[in-house]
Design goal:
about 110 residues; mainly alpha
Length: about 110
């Protein structure tokens, strides 16, 4: 199951850990959802990677019990859902898809 938890893992880590533990106990994977379309820009990508680091990677690193950690992340970042998509030409749309690929590549490297 993926959930949009915003800064909860940073602001209330024990509460987040308890939720993940509860999901795990029910046989459900817990994933943190990210859906910020601004992350498709090079500037937005930097902020997005910081959020993933703080809200998932750093959170997971602080949990000593594996069932309290996130099992992964889910992305709801869709170039075709951005307002620009409707006005861009084929080349502009391709550039937006390339930005998405760059985001996914940077995320994977992180």
């Amino acid at each position: 199951m993926y959930g949009s938890y915003a800064a909860l893992p940073v602001e209330s880590p024990d509460r987040m850990a308890a939720w993940n533990r509860r999901l795990h106990g029910a046989g459900i994977r817990s994933e943190s959802l990210f859906s910020d379309g601004h992350s498709l820009t090079p500037e937005g990508r930097v902020g997005f990677l910081r959020q993933v680091d703080a809200r998932v990677l750093a959170f997971n690193a602080t949990r000593t019990v594996a069932t309290e950690r996130f099992a992964g992340i889910a992305l709801d970042i869709e170039p075709h859902a951005q307002p620009r998509w409707k006005t861009e030409s084929g080349g502009g749309r391709r550039a937006m898809l390339e930005d998405y690929l760059a985001l996914c590549t940077a995320l994977r490297e992180q």
